[in-house]
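@here heads up, posting the sequence + SMILES for the magnesium ion run so it's all in one place. Ping me if the SMILES looks off, I pulled it from an old spreadsheet.
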Amino acid sequence: MFRPDLMVDGVHQVTAELLAELGVLGVLIDLDDTLLPSTGDALDAASEAWLRGLQRAGFPIVILSNGERGRVARLAEHFGIEALALSGKPLRSAFRRALGLLGTPPERTAMIGDQVFTDVLGANLSGLVSILVRPLTPGKLPHTRWVRHLERMILRGGERGRPVHR
Ligand SMILES: [Mg+2]
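bot reply: prediction finished. Complex structure tokens:
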């Protein structure tokens, strides 16, 4: 349940070709520390180019975030896509609403995010393809740092002997 289907260093590694190989038709993307550093509002050129590239390739994309509305809405507007803020990941209800916006079935949809307990767990519980990225920042809150420590322990235990991209 905590094990991602795929681990990558960053969103730029999740190419249109890779998604096609995985049979993915639509993408749910986390915001904080996946697309945007949790410590600021600066979208880097690589993330921007990556998302625009997927849009050009025809993938529907929806932001699925537990973050606050203003920040999420600003980025969604920037890209002209839909978004759910304060979504309640990993609950199934959050993924059901997001899939409704995307219009793709769970097994043909990827959830890309940096957190095991929200993004990966939620995707796995709802039958999506889970893709874990390395967080853009170490996290600004002590709580986040503690969660990251637990995530590393779980991933080390679960992934022993399997090739991982980190
Ligand atoms: Mg995140």
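MO: Residues 6-159 form a domain with the Rossmann fold fold (CATH 3.40.50.1000).
MO: One more: The helical segments are 16-21, 45-56, 69-79, 92-102, 116-125, 142-159.
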